[in-house]
Request: fold
Amino acid sequence: MSMLTHGFEQSFDRTERWPRAKARRAQLRRFALRALAVLSMGSVLAALIALRTAIYVWHLHA
Reply:
């Protein structure tokens, strides 16, 4: 493959790659937001379990 042809094909390939890159970035952003939501819900659940355990232990010793 000559350098002219390779460079010419590469420029077209880049223009076709932009919409796919934007779609991939949007998909990764959605995944990151969902993961953050799941982690934050998990931390809230852990805090509620810890609070309930602390209240149980406090009533146990009272």
User: Anything to note?
Assistant: The first helix runs from residue 3 to 61. Residues 5-61 form one domain. The helical segments are 3-61. The CA atoms of residues 29 and 35 lie 10 Å apart.
